[in-house]
C-alpha cells in the first residue's frame, strides 16, 4: 500500500507543480499584456482560480504523507511514545473519514454542476471538470491518511 500511496502523491504533486508553473506564466503574461499593450488575457482570473484550487487539492496528500504541514505538538510531545503513536493513528482515522465525506459531498456537487451545465463566465469552461479534480485529490488524501493511520497503529504495538 505504501508504494501506491507514494506513487499517487508524487504523481499528483508533479501535476500541481506544472499547474503552478503555468499559473506563474499566465499571470506574468497577463500583467505584461495589461502593462505594455493595455490588453489583459481574457479569462486569466478564472484560470488562476481553478489552478489554485487544483494545486491545493492535488498536493495536500503529499504534504501529509511527508508530514510537511504545520502542527502544534507542545502537549503531545510530553506524552510517552506509544501514546503519541496512538493519538497520531486516531487523528489520521478521523482525517480519513472526513476526507471521504468531503469527497462524497464534492462528488454530489460535481453531479449538480454537470447536470446544470454550469460554465465559467469568460471562457465557458465546464466547472464540474475542476471540481472532479478536487474529488481525486481528496480521495488520495484520504488514502494517505489511512496509510499513515495503519503505520502509526503498527508502531503502537512495536513501542
From TrEMBL:
Q: Which organism is it from?
A: Salinicoccus roseus
Where in the numbering of this chain does the Tripartite ATP-independent periplasmic transporters DctQ component domain appear?
23-148
> Which family would the database say this protein is a member of?
Belongs to the TRAP transporter small permease family.
Q: Which GO terms describe its cellular component?
A: plasma membrane
Keywords from UniProt, A to Z, are: Cell inner membrane, Cell membrane, Membrane, Transmembrane, Transmembrane helix, Transport
Q: Where in the cell is it found?
A: Cell inner membrane
Q: How does it sit in the membrane?
A: Multi-pass membrane protein
Q: What's the protein called, per UniProt?
A: TRAP C4-dicarboxylate transporter
Mind telling me which residue stretches traverse the membrane in this protein?
12-35, 47-65, 85-110, 125-150
Amino acid at each position: 500500500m505504501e508504494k501506491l500511496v507514494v506513487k499517487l502523491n508524487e504523481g499528483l504533486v508533479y501535476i500541481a507543480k506544472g499547474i503552478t508553473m503555468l499559473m506563474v506564466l499566465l499571470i506574468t503574461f497577463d500583467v505584461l499584456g495589461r502593462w505594455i499593450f493595455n490588453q489583459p488575457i481574457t479569462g486569466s482570473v478564472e484560470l488562476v482560480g481553478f489552478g489554485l484550487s487544483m494545486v491545493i487539492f492535488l498536493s495536500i496528500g503529499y504534504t501529509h504523507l511527508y508530514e510537511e504541514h504545520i502542527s502544534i505538538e507542545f502537549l503531545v510531545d510530553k506524552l510517552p511514545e506509544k501514546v503519541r503513536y496512538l493519538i497520531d493513528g486516531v487523528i489520521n482515522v478521523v482525517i480519513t473519514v472526513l476526507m471521504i465525506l468531503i469527497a462524497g459531498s464534492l462528488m454530489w456537487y460535481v453531479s449538480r454542476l454537470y447536470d446544470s451545465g454550469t460554465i465559467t463566465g469568460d471562457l465557458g469552461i465546464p466547472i464540474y471538470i475542476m471540481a472532479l479534480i478536487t474529488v481525486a485529490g481528496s480521495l488520495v488524501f484520504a488514502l494517505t491518511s489511512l496509510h499513515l493511520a495503519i503505520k502509526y497503529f503498527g508502531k503502537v504495538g512495536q513501542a
